């Protein structure tokens, strides 16, 4: 089962997750990233890399995030692969504090 990106990525887009990913499974728009479930190899390396705990293994994810499984699968078909660390959103650090990290 793949990993997925959930709510906390919105407005942050730190992209540290991409740096830890050994495959090209991350796709993104200007606000956030998504994981391609067909490319993710379930290594879990992205989970500790995210400063706002936005990524979960679908096997152990909280129920309130399950809607993100379908959203990730759909959005990656419409967005380009993000292949390296990028500049976070301007308000990312403020959003991180607001989220309690
Ligand atoms: Fe988003 Fe966290 Fe990656 S904020 S871009 S899932 S490091």
Key words describing this protein structure:
Alpha-Beta Plaits, 4 strands, globular, alpha+beta, 3 helices, 21% helix, two-stranded antiparallel ribbon, 101 residues, binds FE3-S4 cluster, two-stranded antiparallel sheet
Structural write-up:
By secondary structure, this protein is α+β, with helices and mostly antiparallel strands. The protein has a single domain (3-91), classed as Alpha-Beta Plaits. 21% of the residues lie in helices and 12% in strands. It is built from 3 helices and 4 strands, in the order E-H-E-E-E-H-H. It has helices spanning 16-20, 67-75, 92-98; strands at 3-5, 26-28, 33-35, 55-57. The strands form 2 sheets. It has a two-stranded antiparallel ribbon with strand order 1-4. Strands 2-3 form a two-stranded antiparallel sheet. The chain is globular, with a radius of gyration of 12 Å. The model has no long low-confidence stretch (mean pLDDT 97). The protein binds FE3-S4 cluster.
Q: What is the β-strand count? A: 4
Distance between the termini: 27 Å
Assigned CATH class: Alpha Beta
Q: Judging from the principal axes of the Cα atoms, what is the shape?
A: globular
The main sheet orders its strands as: 1-4
Give a short account of the largest sheet: 2 strands, antiparallel
Question: Which CATH architecture?
Answer: 2-Layer Sandwich
Oligomer state of the chains in this structure: single chain
The share of residues in helices is: 10-25%
CATH topology: Alpha-Beta Plaits
Q: Can you list the ligands bound to this structure?
A: FE3-S4 cluster
State Rg.
12 Å
Low-confidence stretches: none
**Helix-strand pattern:** EHEEEHH
Report the sheet-strand fraction: 5-15%
Alpha plus pi helix count: 3
**Average residue pLDDT:** 97
**Number of spatially distinct domains:** 1
Structural class determined from secondary elements:
alpha+beta
């Amino acid at each position: 089962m793949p990993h997925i990106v959930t709510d906390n990525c919105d407005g942050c887009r730190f992209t540290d997750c991409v740096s830890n990913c050994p495959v090209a499974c991350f796709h993104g728009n200007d606000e956030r990233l998504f994981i391609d479930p067909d490319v993710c190899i379930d290594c879990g390396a992205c989970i500790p890399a995210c400063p706002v705990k936005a990524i979960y293994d679908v096997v152990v994810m909280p129920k309130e995030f399950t809607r993100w499984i379908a959203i990730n699968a759909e959005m990656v078909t419409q967005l380009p692969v993000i292949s390296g660390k990028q500049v976070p959103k301007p308000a990312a650090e403020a959003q991180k504090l607001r989220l309690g990290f």
